[in-house]
Write a structure and sequence with these properties.
The chain is an alpha+beta fold and 204 residues long. Helices cover 23% and strands 36% of the residues. Strand 10 and strand 11 form a beta hairpin. The protein is elongated and about 70 Å long. Bound molecules: flavin mononucleotide and iron/sulfur cluster (2 copies). One iron/sulfur cluster is lined by residues 152, 168-170, 172-173, 181, 186-192.
Length: 204
Amino acid sequence: MTIEDCIKKLIKIDSLQIATVDKSGAPQIRVISARIFNNTTMYFLTAKRKSFVKEMENNRNIAIIGFDEKENDMVRITGIVEKVSEEEQLKWRNKIYETYPYLENVYPNETKNINVIYKIENYNMEYFTLSTHPITRQYFAIGNTKIKFKGFKIGDECINCGTCKTVCPQNVITEGTPFVIQQEHCLHCGNCFDNCPVNAIKEF
Ligand SMILES: Cc1cc2nc3c(=O)[nH]c(=O)nc-3n(C[C@H](O)[C@H](O)[C@H](O)COP(=O)(O)O)c2cc1C
Ligand code: SF4
Ligand code: SF4
């Protein structure tokens, strides 16, 4: 999958799930459908007084998932949300209404003035599927951000005993000095980590 393929998937899926963090630090999640992309930047519409907005104003960290039922795969975005500038609000609101004419029934006439547009421009994007064997995951850094590595890595303490390879449910550890985890096929289950006799596997 390329970045473009992932974005196409996020456009094709009817609705996305978007998670925020509330004032108490608890996660909140809701469905959104009114969103459009300009290259890799996602613009989405909500209403000014919703809890959704309060949460984004209080904590800019958000996560978005699009699950494609047909392909049994998903694209996840994690990053920092921004409110679109006052000068650009109307432009992006109009574009979103053009893409989703049903919104005219949700916010008829002047009631749409309660709408507000947010965007996510700089984010980590992850693609994950269970449809391949072994599984596939990919990471991308979009905009002004770096990929935050997650998972396990084998260090130079490795004594080449082969235990991790035998306990890996996806058989994605390659022999070598040290042994190497095929990151793009790793489940992050940690079974290798738990079974290494010399603690050569590091968790990130
Ligand atoms: C199919 C569907 C699409 C939705 N699309 C949006 C949307 O684009 N923007 C939005 O603010 N809420 C949308 N909602 C409503 C939100 O999911 C949520 O219920 C609402 O924002 C209230 O949540 P809150 O009280 O946590 O803010 C949609 C709901 C459904 C069921
Ligand atoms: S179990 Fe530990 S020491 Fe053995 S091959 Fe794997 S990483 Fe190396
Ligand atoms: S974390 Fe799980 S899937 Fe990944 S290499 Fe270790 S055992 Fe295999």
